[in-house]
Amino acid sequence: MTLFTERSLHESVEGEPELSPETLLDIYRFMALARALDERMWILNRAGKAPFVISCQGHEAAQVGSAFALTKGKDFTLPYYRGLASVLVMGMTPLDVMLAVFARVADPSSGGRQMPAHYGNRKHKIVTQSSPVGTQIAHATGIGLAEKIKGGDAVAWTSFGEGTSSQGDFHESLNLAAVHKLPVIFQCENNEYAISVPQRLQMAISSVADRGSGYGMPGIAVDGTDVLAVYEVTRAAVERARRGDGPTLIESRVVRLTAHSSDDNERTYRSSTELKALRQHDPVVRFGAYLHEIGVLDEAQEKQLRESIAAEVEEATDQAEQSAVPEPETLFDHVYAQ
Length: 338
Ligand SMILES: Cc1ncc(C[n+]2csc(CCOP(=O)(O)OP(=O)(O)O)c2C)c(N)n1
Ligand SMILES: [Mg+2]
Prior knowledge:
- It is a single chain.
- The chain has 338 residues and is an alpha/beta fold.
- It has one domain (21-321): Rossmann fold.
- It is built from ten helices and seven strands.
- The chain has helices at residues 21-46, 60-67, 84-89, 94-101, 135-150, 168-179, 227-243, 272-278, 283-293, 299-322; strands at residues 76-78, 156-161, 184-190, 193-194, 197-198, 219-223, 248-253.
- The strands form two sheets. The chain has a five-stranded parallel sheet with strand order 1-2-3-7-6, with helices on both faces.
- Helix 7 links the parallel strand 6 and strand 7 (248-253).
- Helix 1 (21-46) packs across helix 2 (60-67), helix 1 crosses helix 10 (299-322) and helix 2 packs parallel to helix 7.
- It is globular, with a radius of gyration of 19 Å.
- The model has no long low-confidence stretch (mean pLDDT 95).
- Bound molecules: thiamine diphosphate (TPP) and magnesium ion.
- The site of thiamine diphosphate has 15 residues, from strand 2 and strand 4.
- Residues 82, 131-133, 160-164, 189, 191, 193-195, 260 line the site of thiamine diphosphate (TPP).
């Protein structure tokens, strides 16, 4: 099932708040920055400088739209490995990201010890995930429970793929969060593949959102290539969570514009026709076209934005590459009790 809407982005959905031109441009800047950083990582990988890449390309609207509905410094973000755009909005810098790509000692996620794309940053309340998919979903429910016990009104937002929604962690976490009305937002970024396995071979239902009702929470499917639609449904979920009414499951229907990872050859399971068709749903192109259409962005501004992003990516790459690698004698730090 695809859920890509034909809705022009400016046809307002019910209750959609007016966003200022500055905010719209900020949203676009984060989407374009995530894309540019991601593209640079692939180049570094193919040049033999970065060990591994797993992309957010095609997921930018789902991630930026939802992150803009959260409050930086207050809410908890528990992203999955495709969450580059999510973590940039929530406070990580291109340099933070590149330090992990090059496994440098200053990498805030793990000091250069974990694979890239395991985003974590205590300062920004970004909680790292483990490599087994779905562990972060249980952590989000746990943080939601702690927040409820403490009487705070922060929310825990977590993301994962549709393949992961068949893991036990997903079901246990949604159940507990619904029973105790915890302030958690579960964002499934459904790109219709778990590596090479298509959705029809992963589950016997067409929409992950349907799983919400089995646990007693709203399950909302949204066009995840429509940044404003994702912003709106997440904003409603945040309000619901802060009111104490409990969790929401959001299924953002996205496209995976790249292979699963830099170690995957998608041509063995996706036809060139399919790959070409996906490009019509590129969320960055879509939002850029909308901003031009409503007069918020013109050619000159677009050029300036692209140049400043290119410079930012360049600087982050150079700085990270030149920064120190971990000392060999620290190899066993944090592995065994000292
Ligand atoms: C528990 C577990 N099983 C298998 C894997 C290997 N694996 C890594 S990513 C992935 C696909 C996950 O697909 P999905 O949840 O749809 O996320 P997507 O990569 O499509 O965004 C698999 C099977 C893993 N990391 N952890
Ligand atoms: Mg998937």
